[in-house]
User: What shape does this take?
Amino acid sequence: MHQLLEQLLIGVQIGSIYALIALGYTMVYGVLKLINFAHGDVYMVGAYAGLGAAGVLGTWLPGHTPLHTLLPSPFGAILVLLTAMLLCALLGLIIEQAAYRPLRTRSWIVPGLVIGGASGYVAYGIALNGNRTPASAIAIGVVVWLGIGALLRTTQSRRTVGTPSRLTALITAIGVSLFLENFGLLPQIFSSDQRFIQRSQIVTLPNRVSVLGASVSVQTLLIFGLSLILMALLTYIVTYTRIGKAVRAVSFDADAAALMGINTNTVIAFTFALGAALAGAAGVMVTGLTGTAFTPYVGVLMGLKAFVAAVLGGIGNIPGAVVGGLVMGLAETLVVAYGPSVGIPSTYRDAVAFFLLIVILLVRPAGLFGRLAPEKV
Amino acid sequence: MGSSAFKSPPLLTRILGFAGLLGLLFLGNAWVERPLIDQSVTSFYGMDQYKEGIVISCGIYVILAVSLNLVNGFTGQFSLGHIGFYAVGAYVAAAVSTYGHARLFPNLPIDGSPIGVVQGAYPVLLLCLIGGLAAAVVGFIVGLPSLRLRGDYLAIITLGFAQIIQVVIRNIKAVDGATSFTGISRGDTTILTPHLTNFFWVFLFVALTLWVSYGLRFSTHGLAFLAVREDEIAAEAMGIPTTRYKVTAFVLSAFFTGIAGALFALYQPSLSNDQFSFVRSIDTVVMVVLGGLGSISGVAIAAVLLTILPEALRGIDQYRLVAYSLLLIVLMLTRPQGIFGREELSRAWLLGQIAAVKSWFSRRSLRPS
Assistant: This one.
């Protein structure tokens, strides 16, 4: 009995992480009808941002030591969390402005700066690797940057404004995701031991406490508690604030909302920032509290599973994402804990999510709480 | 889509067919007349093993991309899970070639040394067929339920199936799914996966895939595929059984992907699970999108280009995926239809491009200031 309770609590911990990430998927899908493939990677960036913030803060705050060590005070830990969330929100904003907005509008300045700049940087790196002198490598980089900028300017000026095809948006999102995963692997960005972080707990905690007779680790409770606070905050923003109301309106009918004077682009940007902040918080909590091993690819599977959670609850539906995340977390934990006794090896853990997805999509394509829109001809 | 969709492309088909036939005769001849005694058999006309490897992986990627194009390009369904079928084809071929060694091909060497065309004909054809069929069966099982879904949902569910296939393979002890599969040991003898794939077979299957693909594209079935892509509801209203066509395309595509997998397995000394990861799936999707969804020649050209490109950028492997990702984003922003769009490489296409460039310049000069 106690063992079951322990497993359930661990499931809730994993599930609340899924839920936090799933919220971003579901909100973006609500306003933009786009599967933001890069969202899982924002989670990864959040974890790295948290580590970086802990390192920087560790040198500032009294009584702390630099990176890969501990922030004993709750104040420092919360500061790390907020910094990482802010950085991720900024990243979400940049992703939206640079990659997704130009698919809908004729904007070219931000994409030219960001995408052109990144391309120029990659060209510079390749040229440098090809034994060119630094000066000529920089020249090559600048030429590529300007070239991409000019290309974007000419093509964007002829774009038809409106909703892009689903496929175009999806492939762009895959591109962004690949970029985020691999940019950190470039030799100039991180050194090799910074890329693959084995163990990087930011906060140390007393080991275990007893809840109703079951012994659980403190981080389980902390992750669950913090997630609940963040979700409550999100609910407040979406339900009671002006911008939250706008988000719901755009989610309900983007065209009608635009006609009512809502600036859909602002709303979309806000949604991206909000979702990214939540994913970043999830990333910081997982690395900072549990000290899980980390690589730049950690967001792929996490993102996919969180997306499955969003679909499970009915994509576009905010409470649905939370429920879906919790269901997924519980299902996974239970398979790992009790699967072997009924003949399912625990290595099937990663398959559980996709099995659930397949069943849900086939039985109830709109998810647990979603409504299926009738097909319009 | 212009009227070209309803006419067969005269030039390219003829050139391809002719070149294909010539090439087959030529290569076949070259190999038959070679005494199959030493390692030099694998090196073809002075090419070393490294270059040979590149050419063979070009061929395998062409098969992969062209077969993925059957689903993603022709029927407009977006599959992200073809790497799963590739894995099935590879593992089934490797398993059959080693476990069935005693019964099916007792004459093959068990030390994994290369085998010539004539000696390898029966095993290669059989193993490719088995690999392809296994992948097709899995494709049917995956496709039948998933093709009820559309667009992003289909992409995600196929991805999910690919992940499941990977996890299942990882748990199969018979093919050492958790580590890497090189062969099996029976008593004190070790039977390694035979090294059967060479230019000839890769070339043959590339030609076969292209031929089937072209044949389909300009047949009634192909037009039904295109109708499904253009407007599924309208196609259904016209009496096209859309689900059946979607599943057909999916299964056919899985079949060829399985063949590519079998060729891969019979070339590699060992198979491991991470060769079939999600990232490899993305590689193929990038080829299809870059070449132009629906353009067979475009996809094939993109596959060759993108296989050679990383080799050309050798030593800077960490830049490859970043460059890929930027390429994808820029492409989607500037030319979402790919290099060739939906057109095939042909004389008409070339003339059209030249005319477009000309008109662009003349429009520029005529633009009122």
